[in-house]
Design brief:
The chain is an alpha+beta fold. Strands 1, 2, 3, 4, 5, 6, 7 and 8 form an eight-stranded mixed sheet that branches. It is elongated, with a radius of gyration of 25 Å. The chain starts with a helix and ends in a 6-residue tail after the last helix.
Amino acid sequence: MTFSEQLLSWYHENKRDLPWRQTRDPYLIWLSEIIMQQTRIEQGLPYYRKFAETWPTVAALAAADEQEILKLWQGLGYYSRARNLHNTAKEIAGSHNGRFPGSREALLGLKGIGEYTAAAIASIAFDQPSPVVDGNVTRFVARYCGITAPAGLPATRRLIHAFAVANLDPRHPGDFNQAMMEFGAMVCTPVNPKCSQCIFSPGCNALAGHLVDSIPVRLAKPPVRQRNLHYLVITFYDAQGLGIFLNRRTGNDIWKNLFDFPMVESSGAGEMLWESGFSDFFPSGPPLFLGVSRLYTHQLTHQKLHARFYRFHAGREMELPFMAVPAGDLPGYPIPRLVERYLTDYPVAPL
């Protein structure tokens, strides 16, 4: 049997029963690929189901409000994926009459769709012989071929892509691509790979050379930036009852268009708010101070956040350059996971 024949035989016997494998709808395949990027299947599956149920077509997603999309995405991280998802849906609904382009090249012209996603949609939905190379495929091929050059180098990526091209079954390109990814996810795993159960172990160069644990070789990661954040949770009473100030993030960062609280950043680790220049928020003196939260840490890709939340209460709404909203409306706003953790531990309730 050839490599692809062995792989496809294994796949049909062992593949997981996942909802996007039961459709050829390019919208649902695209949705699954975007949600599952940098996400474990167990974590992403409930999000996929919620999105597919809430917006079953690309036209429905295009017509949705971005705030609704970000709220449903909340907790999944990498929020640029959600914003790109919405932008691409609007482009397909508007410029492509609601139909996905059928070729890899045309798909690459859509915002938020890169080489991997374009190849996945083209092969699975349209039977185009375009190989996919994601992290699972990279690890599987690098080990099988014994590639000891760093996986992130362009030359290494070309080698892995060439292997996928040479072995892709043109009759079943979608199944082949999913089988490559599934084998990396289920057998050739990052830690404790199941080499004793691997159908390719007789020809695996990494196994023969005792290099399984050291392949794929990773490039050195950039240093993680440490940031110290002090959030001001300021409540007040008005004619509608309890209100709270929210900050809508408009900068071009990973939390763009999400909501958090007014914030002061300090350079020193372990500083408290009153050591960090917070008086700029309260030129006439701070409102009633009600207490400070525990220290929260939150890991992002290249940043580690250290945050405390300081609760204040004003007798009436203050003049601050932030959104004043009813506290009862908080659950409807998309917020970062860090803020969600705080609100779970310290619910905002009337005094």
